[in-house]
Amino acid sequence: MGKDTFTITDNRTGKSYEVPLENETINALDLRQIKVDPEEFGTMTYDPGYGNTASCKSTITYIDGDKGILRYRGYPIEQLAEKSNFLEVAYLLIYGELPDKETGEQWEYKVNRHTYIHEDLRRMMHMFRYDAHPMGMLISALAVMSTLHKEAKDVEDPEVRNKQILRILGKLPTVAAFAYRHRIGRPVNYPNSDLSYTENFLYMLDYMGQHNYTVNPVLAKALDVLFILHADHEQNCSASVMRSIGSSNADPYSAMAGAAAALFGPRHGGANESVVRMLEEIGSADRVPEYVERVKRREFRLMGFGHRVYKSYDPRAKLIKKIAYDVFGVTGSNPLIDIALKLEEAALSDDFFIERNLYPNVDFYSGIIYQAMGFPTDMFTVIFALGRAPGWLAQWNEQVEDPEQRIARPRQVYLGPGERNYVPVEQR
Ligand code: CMC
Q: Which of 154, 164, 284, 363 has the most CB atoms less than 10 A away?
């Protein structure tokens, strides 16, 4: 076995450089010494979309995209989905270990005591138009929360950080539910801390003053598992935004407003909404082959398919497919499931998708479940955001504590004009 180094030879100069290799990674800054002229800037790497660049060292989430493995802090996602609950998983992601009984109970108690939002924020949410997208409302509400909790900017203080973690996890379902109630023109339901985290969310969405109102336990459990499956996914687009904004020492509300905005896009968390719109457009299972041909002609992408990291079946999609049938047991089936199953079957047996390792991802079946549960399409990404919140917070916390982290500031390859003189407008 040789040394853990690379020797890089610069064929322009014939000079060789020995570069250390740690965790199968070279430090990009070690390439800077490679230059022809000492006055030159030095060599960089070019990696649009960060397809092969590790931006941090992390101990939170492990993914093996070829084998379809996902683990939070070492625990397989399948075990957490079956045996844990969302708040326990949130604790695990943020603090690194599963809580013991007492710590877990205190954690749940504290999160559930941070669910009320400031009345000013509630009033501000009423200023949105009735048809405002709830993701826009969520993103804005996070920015407003930054103005209400001013001490949050003291991000170096772990106690201050922990307080914001409780606030964000506690208040986010309230913001989401208030956005929904505003949308349907109903008065908001204030949080009920006697209920579990997920039950309380469903209660705030649904309650209409009925006597003996109860949250359906099957639906609450299904949503709780969906939250677990969405809770973290290492350095995805929105987590990277959370870290990027956090790297300037901005407060976590501002950072999370940015992360939520990144999630909103149809190539990320907005895909669940796009999947349902796509299935509705297809309309019936017999139109699937024609639709697949149009995807192959590159008229559009198959939403809910493909992933930067998974080159096999997304383990979350497998679990979600099972949950769909639990939910249908309560709500009745969603006719879109037949189209989705047919689409999956057609794509998985087609060379175009096989050659490119395109499999269903987490968003392929989740929207169908949300729709069966009665959520309007534009709430789907909001639900993803509620699930992803502990992941964003864990990534942010880890980054703030990491002495190797610096402000995010990528380089560029400048290909624009060289220096030229300003031309007055009358001479152009
Ligand atoms: N339908 C058809 N072709 C696709 C798809 C798709 N959904 N995804 C990728 N491809 C093709 C793409 O055209 C390219 O083909 P070629 O090499 O011939 O040009 C090849 O597969 C590689 O695609 P890529 O764009 O280089 O892959 P990427 O890793 O940059 O993109 C992705 C990953 C998730 C953005 C992409 O697969 C996609 O747009 N999927 C649809 C949107 C979606 O479902 N997003 C949710 C992702 S999972 C949850 C989350 O992250 O929020």
A: 363
Give the residue, out of 308, 316, 357, with the most ligand 1 atoms within 8 A of its beta carbon, to mutate for a pocket test: 308
3-state secondary structure of 341: helix
Cα–Cα nearest to 366, from 334, 394, 390: 334
Cα–Cα dist 366/362, whole Å: 7
Catalytic residue among 268, 338, 350, 402: 268
Examine residue 17 and state whether it is found in any structural domain, yes or no.
yes
267-224-269 Cα angle (round to 5): 5
10 falls within a domain? yes
Query: How sure is the predictor about 334, in pLDDT bands with cuts at 50, 70 and 90?
Result: confident
**Is residue 13 in a domain?**
yes
Strand partners, 352: none
Regarding the beta carbon of 203 and ligand 1, being less than 6 Å apart is answered: no
Decide: 263 and 360 in contact? Cβ < 8 Å: no
Q: Is residue 399 part of a domain?
A: no
Q: Read off the pLDDT of residues 162-178 as tens digits, 9 standing for 90 and up.
A: 999 999 999 999 999 99
What is the C-alpha separation between 124 and 141, in angstroms, rounded?
A: 8
pTM: 0.94
Protein residue closest via CA to atom 46 of ligand 1: 268
CA angle (93, 99, 100) in 5-degree steps = 165
Q: How far is the CA of 233 from the centre of ligand 1 (A)?
A: 17
Active site residue 268: yes
Segments forming the whole domain that contains residue 24: 1-45
- Residue 307 catalytic? yes
Establish whether 114 is a catalytic residue: no
322 vs 332: CA distance, rounded Å: 15
Nearest atom (ligand 1) to Cα of 237: 51
